[in-house]
Design goal:
Strand order of the largest sheet: 3-4-9-6-8-7
Structural class: alpha+beta
Mean pLDDT: 80
Largest sheet: 6 strands, mixed, barrel
Distance between the termini: 38 Å
Radius of gyration: 39 Å
Number of strands: 22
Oligomer: single chain
Strand content: 15-25%
Shape: globular
Length: about 900
């Protein structure tokens, strides 16, 4: 029986609703009159009886209203019931169909799982870094306040204490500005001293962040004045590891660099300021830096501010620029060319990795799109699907029912692929946390959590709708007579064939884009691996230590490092040893200097350089070459004239047209009365990588530790074999002279490895995604040609019966497959020429449009496409023309 049209069913439903309302109303009125008559029989008047009956049953209007509400509820209930009944039936039919084709189902779910798993893994990284708010009060109002130096092209510079006080006094856009900077401490007073990260902060820092103490209190203004007691606020992790999670830890003491500090507060578990001091375990006040507070020319503080309500970033930027101009006018010697750069704290946190994450996210979306394209092709190519839907249509199923059935099956595929994708994402996220560099922002928050699972579910449903929409549209337009005939079961409509071929072109082009991105990153990584870091990190052991200013006279500090280096070098198995305030790949202290006779240059325009204090054997141990001049001799002292070494970059930058050797300079560092104020350049050494291998070398100067020494330093020890094997002997020797050495031994090449990791991470992921895309593209080409061979089986038999040889049949199908791949390659190359430019920030030593990479990747994809075409094409040559003619 043909189902009634939709408008007729609706009319009948409304008629039933009206009759139901009338019947119930009449039933209420009948009972009302019956009760009224009974009451009157008991002796009540008619009015009294009717009033009491109405009070009990309500009037007829209320009865009709109740009837209407009841009818509507019944209709809604019937509609919901029919919806779930239909959905259950479609799901059951879909699952039954999947079970009948396990191989097809496995391929579809695997393709989707790869795409959804890759996308979910990247989202688990992108969510905490880009989308999740920072764990501070009103985080959107927090901004980094950077001081800029226009003459040095520096947009993220530190500020001096006097400048920070001027900002606080003059600004009208911030509710507060806090100052802080990173520190390193040796945790002493324990069995084995340890080197830990920390920070110094003023009282405003924690106040404007809106962070409460988990226990105790945070730093206040009373803690940040000269003569105040030494106090410390510790992280939650420090409290657990070093204070044994003692609930009465407030008031206990810890020793930092041999100085006793009272614990006044414990930070919440989630607190970790993400800029410059990420991972800080102890926070101390800036009270000890009284000398630095007097110098406007010493930029030592970083600043974070909280905007007033209603103030946006642009308004604050304009206001602070006006303050910068005023300070330049008041203090021209120190504030010339100074400006401001305000950046939201959230943007600052992710700025370094934002482009990388967006590129990786785009790459995973391409993989997901290729997977959807492949699955759509597989669904379009399903043998017998048109006939099945044609039978359903002939039995009365409407077009909407057919579309609903196909989309339901597609969403089922998507959900099953999503479940498997979540498993892959959980596994992949664990691998990502190993591949990601250790300094990656908010690394500890990367996980497959509830928001990530919701995202994965949404992606699964969305992909089901995406790849199912084209088959649903195609199958809904099925021709009954063609689909029900035998020929119709083995042929496709021209539009369907065109759609499948278009999908192959699309996924080939997308795969090429990913392969080119991976190729560029691989070549970039290879270029970086060939960079000479300027030193030899092999078989070099390092460890750091600090010394208290009051315990070691400035002369004795330098002599200590020099003496220890000589004694360590004399140990068995050790070839050389030295020490420096910093080591390669750990950017040193930055200062400015003046050439002799140039005292009139304003502070903001003075040349800037990295500044190291080292022992003479530092260069021999690290094998940093001498280019010209001479090295330190070890006889330098504070009684002899000051000497200094510069690197090649400093020589080229500051003495481009003259010989720097023999020139005199005045470094602007925090010196004592015993330090020489004038240094003579005695030699030029090679450039050394100071932070990243792919960064251009910065100007650098080296001073003998016996003439200028810091209370902290790092020893470098070259061994003949495994550097860690010498750790025990070094610990015994140094421990016999001081109890303040933090023996966190680390091979120097691990620092080099961390620099390499930053490049290896995107290269590995892009290569993985490109490999998945290549496999999916090959599967897609193979599937389309296999289907074409099946559909044209009859044609092949007739051709062979008429004399066509195997080579002709091979050429016919190879040409069809390679033609599709060639079109995809051409479109992909055009797209890659534009999209690869977005990757320029991730490349090193190679152009985004490198012709060799483009050509090599295109050739690789063409070879894979040829192999994917060859297998089904060879099958076509095995068609027996006799069987074909018999079937006719």
């Amino acid at each position: 029986m043909t189902p009634a049209p939709g408008w007729k069913r609706l009319f009948r439903r409304e008629e039933n609703h009206r009759h139901l309302e009338e019947n119930i109303s009449e039933e209420f009125l009948f009972h009302l009159e019956e009760l009224t008559d009974r009451l009157m029989a008991e002796g009540l008047s008619e009015d009294e009886a009717r009033a009491r009956a109405r009070a009990q049953f309500g009037d007829a209007e209320k009865a009709r209203d109740g009837c209407r509400d009841l009818g509507e509820k019944r209709l809604r209930s019937e509609g919901i019931g029919r919806f779930f009944s239909t959905l259950t039936r479609d799901v059951r039919i879909g699952l039954r169909g999947m079970a009948r084709r396990p191989g097809h189902t496995f391929v579809v779910i695997t393709c989707l799982a790869l795409g959804i798993g890759a996308t979910t893994s990247i989202f688990s990284v992108l969510h905490p870094v880009i989308l999740k708010p920072l764990p501070f009060g009103d985080p959107d109002r927090l901004v980094m306040v950077w001081e800029t130096f226009r003459t040095r092209n520096m947009t993220e510079g530190a500020c001096s204490y006097p400048n920070l006080e001027e900002w606080r006094a003059q600004n009208r856009v911030f509710a507060g500005i806090g100052g802080f900077h990173p520190t390193r401490h040796t945790l002493t007073g324990i069995d084995l001293p340890e080197r830990i990260h920390g920070g110094r902060a003023d009282a405003e820092f924690f106040r404007i962040l809106g962070v409460p103490a988990a226990r105790g209190r945070l730093l206040t203004a009373e803690d940040d004045v000269a003569g105040a007691a030494d106090v410390v606020v510790v992280s939650h992790g420090f409290w657990q590891r070093y204070l044994q999670a003692d609930p009465d830890a407030i008031g206990r003491t810890v020793e930092l660099d041999g100085i006793t500090h009272a614990v006044i507060g414990i930070l919440p578990p989630e607190f970790d300021f993400p800029v410059a001091v990420a991972g800080a375990e102890v926070w101390t006040a800036t009270a000890r830096e009284q000398n630095e507070r007097q110098h406007r020319e010493w930029p030592v503080l970083l600043a974070v501010g909280r905007l007033n309500e209603g103030i946006d970033l642009a308004t604050a930027q304009t206001h602070m620029e006006a303050i910068a101009e005023q300070l330049t006018a008041e203090f021209p010697e120190t504030n010339t060319e100074h400006g401001f750069n305000l950046v939201s704290l959230h943007s600052q946190t992710s700025s370094r990795v934002r482009t990388l994450l967006f590129l990786l996210g785009g790459a995973t979306l391409l993989v997901l799109l290729i997977a959807c394209t492949n699955v759509a092709n597989l669904l379009l190519s399903r043998s017998g699907r048109r006939g099945e839907l044609a039978v359903r249509a002939s039995l009365g199923a409407g077009r909407s029912a057919l579309v609903r059935q196909v989309l339901t099956e597609s969403i089922l595929y998507g959900l099953l692929g999503g479940v498997l994708g979540i498993v892959l994402a959980w596994w992949g996220t664990r691998i990502l946390t190993v591949l990601i560099p250790a300094d990656f922002p908010r690394l500890g928050e990367i996980a497959v959590n509830t928001p990530v699972l919701i995202f994965s579910l949404g992606i699964a449903v969305a992909t089901g709708l995406i790849f199912g929409s084209l088959p649903a549209w195609q199958f809904a337009r099925v021709n009954l007579s063609s689909a029900l005939s035998d020929a119709g079961r083995h042929t496709s409509a021209p539009v369907q064939r065109l759609a499948r071929r278009g999908l192959i072109v699309l996924e080939t082009g997308l795969a090429l884009i990913l392969l080119i991105g991976a190729g560029l990153l691989i070549r970039s990584f290879r270029n970086m691996m060939e960079v000479d870091p300027g030193f030899d990190p092999k078989n070099v052991l390092t460890f750091s230590m600090s010394q208290r200013w009051q315990d070691y006279h400035v002369i004795r500090r330098g002599e200590f490092y020099l003496s220890m280096s000589e004694q360590i070098a004399a140990l068995p198995g050790i070839r050389a040893a030295g020490a420096g305030s910093h080591i390669p790949l750990e950017r040193g202290f930055r200062t400015t200097f003046l050439k002799a006779g140039q005292d009139e240059i304003p502070s903001g325009e003075r040349p800037s350089t990295l500044y190291y204090s080292v022992t003479p054997s530092y260069f021999e141990t690290l094998r940093i070459p001498l280019i010209r001049g001479r090295m330190f001799t070890g006889d330098e002292s504070r009684e002899t004239p000051g000497v200094i070494l510069i690197n090649q970059t400093a020589a080229r930058m500051w003495w481009p047209d003259s010989d720097p050797i023999g020139q005199h300079i005045h470094p602007e560092v925090d010196i004592t009365s015993l330090d020489p104020t004038e240094m003579e350049i005695i030699g030029i050494v090679g450039d050394v990588a100071d932070s990243d291998l792919d960064a251009a070398p910065l100007p650098c100067m080296y001073v003998p530790c016996t003439q200028q020494t810091w209370p902290y330093g790092t020893f470098v020890i070259r061994t003949g074999d495994d550097p860690l094997a010498a750790a025990s002997a070094v610990r015994d020797l140094v421990g016999s002279h001081t109890s303040e050495a933090a023996f966190s031994f680390r091979p120097l090449d691990t620092g080099l490895e961390r620099s390499i990791t930053a490049r290896r991470f995107p290269m590995t992921l892009f290569s993985l995604y490109a490999g998945i895309a290549l496999v999916l593209a090959a599967v897609g080409i193979y599937g389309v040609l296999s289907r074409a061979v099946i559909q044209r089986h009859h044609e092949i038999g007739i051709r062979m019966a008429l004399g066509a040889g195997p080579s002709g049949i091979v050429g016919l199908f190879m040409w069809e497959g390679l033609q599709l791949a060639g079109i995809g390659l051409g479109l992909g190359l055009i797209a890659a020429l534009f999209l690869s430019r977005v990757m320029s920030g991730l490349l090193f030593g190679i152009e985004p449009t490198d012709s060799l990479t483009f050509a090599a990747v295109a050739a690789l994809l063409l070879v894979v496409a040829t192999a994917a075409c060859w297998v089904p094409t060879r099958r076509a040559t095995r068609v027996d023309p006799v069987d074909t003619l018999k079937s006719d």
